Amino acid sequence: MNVNRILFFIALSILILGQTQAQTLSNDALKAQIKAFKADERGPYRDIRWFCEDGSIRQPKDPCPANIGPGVQHARYKEVVEKIGKENHIFLAQILAYTKKESLWDEARNNSRLKQYQLGKYLYGIDNGWILEKAQFYRGSIQYEDEQEAGRDFYKWVLANDKNIEQKYFLIRESLKDVPHSGDDNLAQLMRSQSKTISDIEPRFMNLRVKIHSQPEVSDVEKVKSFKQQNQSRLSASVLKQLDELVETMVQFYKPIDLSSLLYKDTLLKGTPMGNAIQDFILKTNVQNASEVVKNSSELLLQIRKGILSEKRVITRLKLMDISLKLETVIFKESPKWEPKTLNELLQKIYYLGMANAGAGNIELWEWSQIEKTLKPKNNGTTTLADLNNILIAARGEVEWSASMVKAYYQEVVNMYTAFEPKAYGFIDDRIRGSITLHLGQSVGELGNYLAEASNFSNKVLDLQNTSSLRGLNPGYAFGELVVVSEDPESVEVSSNKIYIFQRPPADLKPVAGIATVEEGNMVSHVQLLARNLGIPNAALSSENLKGLKKYEGKNVFYAVSNQGTVILKLEGEMSATEKALFEKKERKEDKIEVPVDKIRLDQNAILNLRDVDATSSGNICGPKAANLGQLKKMFPDNVVEGLVIPFGIFKSHMDQNMPNQNTSYWGFLTAMFEQAESMRKNGTSEAEVESFQLKKLESLRAAIKEMPLKSDFKKSLEDDFKSVLKSSMGNIPVFLRSDTNMEDLKDFTGAGLNLTLFNVVESQKIWDGIKAVWASPYTERSFKWRQKYLLNPENVFPSILIIPSVDVDYSGVMITKGIQSGNGADITVAFSRGAGGAVDGQIAETYLIRMDETYDLLAPAREPYYNSLPKTGATQKNMATFESRILTEKNITQICKLTEQVRELMDKLHPDYTGAYDVELGFKNGQLWLFQIRPFVENKKALSSDYLESISPKIDSKKEISLNATL
Questions:
Q1: pLDDT per position as a tens digit, 620-630
Q2: What domain of life does the native source organism fall in (predicted)?
Q3: Which of 328, 420, 858, 947 is 20 to 30 A from 370, alpha carbon to alpha carbon?
Q4: Do the bridges between strand 567-571 and strand 460-461 make them parallel or antiparallel, or are there none, so unpaired?
Q5: What pLDDT digit, counting tens, does each position of 85-130 carry?
Q6: How far is it, in rounded angstroms, from Cα 773 to Cα 801?
Q7: What's the distance, Cα to Cα, between the start and end of the chain in Å?
Q8: 159 near 171, Cβ under 8 Å?
Q9: Distance in angstroms (rounded) separating the CA atoms of residues 794 and 201
């Protein structure tokens, strides 16, 4: 066999191996493929065929014969398209007539394929056909009549299942706007797509595009015509044609309302309760009165959502869904015409738009029931500033919940596509702008502006006009460069002297000067607690605010959040003398916190039973997690699991072993690093260089600790204790390994979430490896940077480890024995998510303000699309969540109030000198409450008591009465 033949067979073998071990295409490969599709006259399609009912496939000029039944004609996908679908689970240019109903619903992948169909339609609209740029004209590739028939069959199948409607009403209804099934077009989305396409080509059209996207109204038609007339000589023939097409779409969209068309020639609904309600609506609604149209349409929209399950015929359910969409269009068009003249009219408009928003599925029905009583207008002639503020909070909350609903359903798919097609990122914004939420948000903004003026309360944020959506979360002030992060925050390397505006907060935030987020997660996540604890100013803002701040990126700004939630953001040149003085003095070393080590016992080398530690053990033989949980075990024996504690002494004895390839111990290596760093500072080395040196040394130390040999007597003792205390052999019971250092829960530093917790570990080797990983975690970059910035002696950090059996809770979260938002020490704040590990990692959690009389306010519903369960086999399992029912029950609220009362009473006896609140991690399993941690809730007293922050908090007379007839 010659050399060439050998090389040929080697190459063939490699090719075959590559085909048998298929891998997902990279994002770069997908980008290249998208580009190729755009330039291809057939795009993603291979050819056109007849598909017959008997499964046979025939040539385009050879239709299915009558004896085997009719078939459908459409394109086949290119092989690479099928490969992308199979390997990447990305489905491009989907043909409904080519797709099984079960495949399109894609339930096992959280309906990904249906969402991708919608995203594909969006990209097609805004990017000249997207991957069908040239294939739009590939005749016969898609038959619209067949697509409609496939869409109808799909929805009849989906709507036959009550569970689908109960759990995914929002998704089904949203998808109806994109999936052909009735001959209707989504004119609102088409109008936005056409205006975007024009502005991308012709920048002078941008102002009109913003108007059409943000405040659409019928007068925009004349504005577009005027733009065309004024710029006719400067515009290309293509743009002139697109302007004509936009005008045609807008005229069609804004044509006069014909309510009778809702039941035009309809016999299915005639005589039914829903049919009678729709007929009454048609007869009683005066289409010339915008406020009446919006009110009546909103009531009917909600009625359809509540009553659709009582209709058992699937084709009638589909008809009701379509009527619901038409009502949304009516409200969307008529809302701008309703121009409230008085405060009472504005409150009515907010109430009815909120109702319509719930009817459209943008929030869940149970969520609407929680805020309806607050939003419902009163007819007693006057109101107070306090009541108006409550209405504003509830209404603003509904806008935020609606936006987070869109993100919860679509963000995962949008992120997947954005990685290879950046234009996909605009999809979520487009869905929100095309919904009733847009007009609700505008009305809420008007109320916020009115209330700010009436109470002399206003945010001052650069040149932003609508700042009523801004609200402070944590008080503090900062000065530094502004960084606006609209993309994935996990990929951003943050700096401790910069101010960051995030779309959503990163799970593991390193030190920053200040933060603001669109998706705040929840008020008691680790990120929020660290910010509150350290006096880092933190605020929530809207997506519009984030976009408005983008042009100031890179500028030095002053940022402050007051105790009452006022937000100030201004350029460096606009700072007052008082504000400049806040930063004239460098941070004094005395402002840092010292980790107490005078009482630490490193001679405790025996593993401890959780029952044998209590609050007095904290910082002595173990960290506060174990000490406080041991205390809770004594106080609430039936609500706390058994556990084991690996004390500081065992960690230190292992660190005293010789470190491989070093002439010192692990501990000697660490202390030498700190000594050398201090010497570098004294010799004038820059802090950045010192930090870089330390991080490299710590990286080496972490790697060495993870390979450190464990002492045989320690291993035997732990194995024995598993049997005697946890009642199971190691390797047979899943456990949590929680890092528990002496740097946590200090008087002025919480350290929440800085070190490692390992979830649901089962296998023995993974437990041994996990112990070393937890010991190494205080030396990660993030943990070290927080300590280095706020601790005087960051080298004196000792980790203990708390080992507790896993409890596969139904839902879990955090309870703070204080009203964080209200500031009332008698209230309770709780945040819960489904599954294990809830609410602590920035999740969008179900959050309540609870009063001790068991009344409560819903501050935010959960919007996490997935949750963790803890299988007995170990690790975590991702499960899909739906939002149709609340997490916490009324019984849970009662349990939480009772627990809070007991915690306050018992902890006050143990810590008579402590006057603050407590931070408790807990969960529920089959209705039983389980306690996992208790710690002091640390707030930054310097920020809370700052004279400057007090000066920017307006003094509000909450009892001040205001006439509901007051003019706007």
A1: 999 888 998 99
A2: Bacteria
A3: 328
A4: parallel
A5: 999 999 999 999 999 999 999 999 999 999 999 999 999 999 989 9
A6: 11
A7: 93
A8: no
A9: 56
Q: CA 298 to CA 439: how far, in whole Å? A: 13
Contact 346, 376 (CB under 8 A): no
Residue 479 to residues 570, 580, 602, Cα–Cα distance (Å): 10, 9, 42
**Overall average pLDDT of the 920-928 stretch:** 94
Could you tell me the two tokens for 104? 């399109």
Which pTM does this prediction carry? Answer: 0.83
**How many other β-carbons are positioned within 10 Å of the β-carbon of residue 147?**
20
Return the ∠ at Cα 671 (arms to 665 and 675), rounded to 5°.
Answer: 135
Task: Identify whether the C-beta of residue 432 lies closer than 8 Å to the C-beta of residue 407.
Answer: no
Q: What residue type is assigned to position 305 of the chain? A: R
Long-range contacts, 407-412 (Cβ 8 Å, 24+): 407/519, 407/863, 408/844, 408/863, 408/864, 408/865, 408/883, 409/115, 409/170, 409/171, 409/174, 409/865, 410/115, 410/118, 410/119, 411/865, 412/110, 412/112, 412/865
Nearest to 257 by CA among 195, 314, 327: 327
Quote the tokens at residue 8.
């040929």
**CA separation, residue 795 to residues 678, 743, 960 (Å):** 12, 10, 55
DSSP state of 404: H
Q: How many CA atoms lie within 13 A of 804 on its CB side?
A: 23
Complete domains list, the chain, with CATH: 3-181 (no CATH), 189-214+219-253 (no CATH), 258-333 (no CATH), 340-454 (no CATH), 460-585 (3.50.30.10), 590-806 (3.30.1490.20), 808-937 (3.30.470.20)
Per the CB < 8 A criterion, the answer to whether 327 and 953 are in contact is no
Cα–Cα distance measured from residue 153 to residue 75, given in angstroms and rounded to the nearest whole number:
20
- Cα separation of 422 and 308, whole Å? 38
| DSSP string over 540-570 | E--HHHHHHHGGGTTSEEEEEE-TT--EEEE
The span from the CA of 796 to the CA of 14, in Å, is: 55
Closest CA to 405 of 441, 437, 445: 437
C-beta separation of 32 from 56 below 8 A: no
The label of the residue with tokens 């008809």 reads: 319
The DSSP letter of residue 286 is -
What distance in Å separates the CA atoms of residue 959 and residue 954, rounded to the nearest whole number? Answer: 15
DSSP assignments along 238-283, one per residue: HHHHHHHHHHHHHHHHTSPP-GGGGGTT--SSTTSHHHHHHHHHHH
pLDDT in tens, 866-883: 999 999 999 899 999 999
Residue 879, judged by CB atoms within 10 A of its CB (0-12, 13-18, 19+), counts as: exposed
